[in-house]
Amino acid sequence: MKKIKLILILLFALVLQSKGQFYETPDWIRNIPLHGNISAIGVSDPRVPSDSIAKLQSQIRAKAIIALLNEVDIAYTSQYFQVETEEHRTYKLQEIIEKLGKLQARLPYHPDDFSIIESNINQNEEHLILMGYQDISESKTHVLNVYCEFYSKEYEISNTRAYAVAEIVELYISDSSENGIKNYSCKMEFDGRDVELSSNTDGYKNEPPGYAYSYKKTSDLKNINDFDATLNLEKGIWQAYFRGLCHAISEKAKNYNSKIKNLDDLFRTARESEENYDESTMQQELSRQVVKNTMQFYLHGLEIDQNMLYINISTPQLDQESPMKYFPPPPTDSIQETPCDRSFWDWLFGRNKCD
């Protein structure tokens, strides 16, 4: 009888533990109202040992996202590489999809321009804040510079016909004022199940614990096509939230093609050497798209379902009903090629060799 009671107690404890792992999020993340010009959510790393550092992380990250939403320079390229080979009279197709992007923003501000509307600390010790920005101060005492690079590669695992995704995201923030410059950064590396996260908050280095987290769903989503990005929450809210923003911004930039280039190439190579050239042995195809834009965005809200984070943003360039002012696309003659000799990477990242 005692053994039965002990087993029941253990089962009850396991049930309580499993339910406790579903961390809740505040209701206000679902529908973000406009406070001033722009509103954004800031999130700290999970389980930061210092509460003051976690609070500072959420605030500086909210400011950085506001700067990106306010006006961001986007340089983005995606390329699709396909190799078709013949082995034992059967065709084998291998595909690689690569994406590389850069986001850059600059925001002069006064501390009075920002206001914290909502704040919350969940059971996973993540600090979440809703911050509003309104350009009300004539004197700007600070300058916020935000720089982000992201790269992802979807490739076929050798001899398995299964696909894996590797991704790297790096964010750098500098906040300068008369008292000096404060620097912040975070790095996210994903390669299949291997994940490495790290951050530097004004000299305080932190690596979140490598646990797997589960979050309580906010609603039953009926149409996921209404959202612009979907990311797994297994490693915390911040990594999914910021990676999702990078994905969503780059996808929106592709739809607003003020400066866009496409390259398609089809070619064949010999399997061993030019002497053994055989057109039927291998066919390779490369397709590349390049986008450069300066855009604004509006964050509408976040939803959680099945431990996935769904992000909804819009841009006034594509939606003139957005509360932010509308910027028309530049004239078509402004995207003509310059006569100087510039490589593809010079064009993408704005390096000018004409001087």
Written description of the protein model:
By secondary structure, this protein is α+β, with helices and mostly antiparallel strands. It has one domain. It is 18% helix and 44% strand. It has 4 helices and 17 strands. The protein has helices at 2-20, 51-70, 237-255, 344-348; strands at residues 22-23, 38-43, 72-87, 90-109, 114-121, 127-133, 142-156, 163-177, 180-191, 194-201, 204-206, 214-215, 229-232, 260-267, 282-295, 298-305, 308-314. The strands form 4 sheets. A 9-stranded antiparallel sheet has the order 11-10-9-8-7-4-3-15-14, with helices on one face. A 3-stranded antiparallel sheet has the order 2-6-5. Strand 10 (194-201) and strand 11 (204-206) form a beta hairpin. It starts with a helix and ends in a 7-residue tail after the last helix.
Kindly summarize this structure in a few lines.
The chain has four helices and 17 strands. The protein is of the alpha+beta class.
Number of helices: 4
Biggest sheet features? 9 strands, antiparallel
- Percent of residues in helices comes to 10-25%
Count the E strands.
17
Question: What is the radius of gyration?
Answer: 24 Å
Order of helices and strands: HEEHEEEEEEEEEEEHEEEEH
List unreliable stretches of 5+ residues: 12-20, 269-273, 321-342
Shape verdict: globular
Distance between the termini: 88 Å
Mean pLDDT: 81
Counted up, domains total: 1
Strand order of the largest sheet: 11-10-9-8-7-4-3-15-14
Strand content: 35-45%
The structural class is alpha+beta
